[in-house]
């Protein structure tokens, strides 16, 4: 598939149309049809392309890594969740920043190599949107997360939200000890390698390329990590894209409230997980109460942040 340049030309034009709302800050170089064939692929040329993992070159060309990160997060959230398009290889050799004084903040994102795309079926895409929104709600419904998670990952539904983002830890029924294990790359004791293998087989057989989506999201997380872009901000981009599919403008504002509370809870949970192994039970209980109070204060007081986030 990746060696048939008719396919790459079609994918390139489809991706460019899908990302047109982000243009000219996000660009897919235009194809040159008269020069394209099944064995030749040609696009317009973009100069000063800078790898997103080349920190020194980004600084030299005055490309703000946080601005570039926001463009990457938005582009690679909108492609799968709004359009059902999953870029197969969004690694640092295909995703570039470049200085451009004609666009906001002087930074442009250029996405190359559209030879391999995975496609999400309509029902699968909507279910992923629903799962993102369910995990980002202020008090996630475990039954809803369970139902959606089982649809995608069967017996691994408990850890599936963490594959989308560690920010969704509160949407899982995992204990603090199990979350600690997951943060160290270890499986919870209740999940066996056999379950993992069977689940991967089922994912591979599905009508949509769910493994392709997880693979692509993993690449994007790596890119953003190299830029020092916060994971919470990537999650916000996912929620904005999912909300654009599922909710009205008013509901989207409410989702910003929810997302900020999830971010705050995650940060406090990190403190809590450090405190737990080394302090008495009373200290752990006190920390939990502090978390509840802090979330309540955030919900009632920080209105401006949510709306402008």
Could you give the topology of this structure?
Blueprint: H1 5-18, E1 26-27, E2 50-51, H2 55-60, H3 65-83, E3 85-87, E4 95-99, E5 107-111, E6 117-119, H4 122-136, H5 142-153, H6 160-164, H7 176-183, H8 193-205, H9 210-226, H10 231-246, H11 249-275, H12 281-301, H13 303-308
Parallel strand pairs: 1-5
Antiparallel strand pairs: 2-4, 3-6, 4-5
Helix pairs in contact: 3-4, 3-9, 3-10, 4-5, 4-10, 10-11, 11-12
Structure notes:
The chain is α+β, with helices and mostly antiparallel strands. It has helices at residues 5-18, 55-60, 65-83, 122-136, 142-153, 160-164, 176-183, 193-205, 210-226, 231-246, 249-275, 281-301, 303-308; strands at 26-27, 50-51, 85-87, 95-99, 107-111, 117-119. It is built from 13 helices and six strands. A four-stranded mixed beta sheet has the order 1-5-4-2.
Dominant shape: globular
User: DSSP helix count?
Assistant: 13
Q: Whole-number radius of gyration?
A: 21 Å
Strand order of the largest sheet: 1-5-4-2
Which structural class best describes the helix and strand composition? Answer: alpha+beta
Q: What amount of the residues lies in strands?
A: 5-15%
| Beta strand count | 6
Instruction: Tell me the series of helices and strands, N- to C-terminal.
Output: HEEHHEEEEHHHHHHHHHH
Describe the biggest sheet? 4 strands, mixed
Give start-end ranges of low-pLDDT stretches.
295-309
pLDDT averaged over residues: 82
């Amino acid at each position: 598939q990746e060696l048939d340049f008719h396919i790459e030309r079609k994918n390139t034009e489809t991706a460019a149309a899908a990302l047109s709302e982000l243009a000219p800050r996000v660009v897919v170089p235009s194809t040159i049809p008269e020069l394209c064939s099944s064995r030749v692929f040609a696009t317009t040329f973009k100069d000063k392309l800078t790898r997103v993992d080349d920190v020194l070159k980004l600084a030299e060309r005055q490309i703000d890594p946080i601005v570039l990160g926001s463009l990457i997060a938005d582009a690679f959230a909108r492609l799968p969740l709004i359009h059902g398009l999953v870029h197969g290889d969004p690694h640092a050799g295909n995703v570039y920043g470049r200085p451009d004084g004609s666009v906001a903040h002087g930074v442009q994102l250029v996405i190359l190599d559209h030879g391999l795309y995975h496609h999400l079926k309509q029902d699968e895409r909507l279910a992923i949107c629903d799962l993102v929104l369910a995990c980002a709600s202020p008090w996630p419904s475990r039954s809803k997360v369970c139902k959606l998670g089982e649809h995608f990952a069967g017996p691994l539904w408990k850890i599936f939200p963490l594959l989308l983002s560690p920010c969704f830890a509160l949407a899982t029924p995992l204990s603090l000890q199990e979350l600690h294990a997951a943060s160290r790359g270890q499986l919870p004791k209740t999940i066996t390698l056999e379950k993992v293998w069977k689940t991967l087989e089922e994912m591979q057989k599905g009508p949509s390329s769910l493994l392709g989506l997880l693979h692509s999201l993993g690449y994007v997380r790596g890119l953003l990590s190299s830029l020092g872009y916060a994971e919470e901000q990537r999650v916000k981009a996912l929620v904005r894209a999912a909300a654009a599919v599922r909710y009205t403008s008013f509901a989207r504002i409410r989702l910003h409230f929810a997302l900020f509370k999830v971010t705050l809870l995650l940060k406090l949970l990190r403190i809590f997980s450090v405190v737990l192994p080394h302090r008495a039970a009373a200290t752990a209980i006190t920390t939990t109460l502090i978390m509840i109070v802090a979330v309540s204060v955030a919900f009632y007081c920080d209105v401006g942040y949510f709306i402008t986030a």
